[in-house]
Each structure stands twice: as structure tokens, then as C-alpha cells.
Amino acid sequence: QVQLVESGGGLVQPGGSLRLSCAASGSIFSIYTMGWHRQAPGKQRELVAVVTSGGSTHYADSVKGRFTISRDNAKNTVYLQMNSLKPEDTAVYYCYADGVVAGADFGSWGQGTQVTVSS
Fold first, then answer.
1. pLDDT at residue 28 greater than cutoff 80
2. How far is CA 54 from the centre of its chain?
3. Could you tell me which residues come within 8 angstroms of residue 37 by beta carbon, excluding any fewer than 6 positions away?
């Protein structure tokens, strides 16, 4: 089993910054994609950003230019630097990873971390 543990959420004022981290643990052979999704109250979960094992990135249009995703392959950790935060960024942020463990494909989600942008 692969477990994802997120950290770094909290309350921040509009225009502020937060950095989320997500560490994967387990008998991991390889992680392909790592990313972040978010879900606001009453809305569907949506993709925020993903990064491949080769370093290619993709962002939702709503966060381009404000959020930066990165990963440390040696630590099986993905980060999301969030700048110029807006009230509409308020949501529970979920980490995601897929890859191979013990010879089988896996896809795992973290437990979620709350991000609240409010004055």
C-alpha cells in the first residue's frame, strides 16, 4: 500500500502564500504522476496541477502564473507553492500519486488539507 500524507494547509489572507507538501510512503518501486486536486463546498473535485516523473507540468487555467508544482523524486514528495491566493482558491486540497508498487499499478489519494483564503 502507498500512503500519501499532506501538510501545509491553513488560513491565509487574500494575496498571501502557502506551500503544500505531500510525501508518499510504502514499498514504492516507481511513481509516475504526482499532483494536486481540490474540492470546494458544493463543487466537484478539480485538477489543480500535476507533474510527471520527467518533470513535465500541467496547470488548471485558474491557477496558471500563481501556483507552482514541483517534486523531489528522491523523497517521493510533491509540493505546491501557492502565491497570490484568492478567496476562490478556498477548498480541500488532495494529493494524488500513481505508479508501481510490489509489481502492481497503484493510484492513491491523500486525506486532504484545508486551505482557506479569507480576510
1. no
2. 17
3. 45, 46, 47, 48, 93, 94, 96
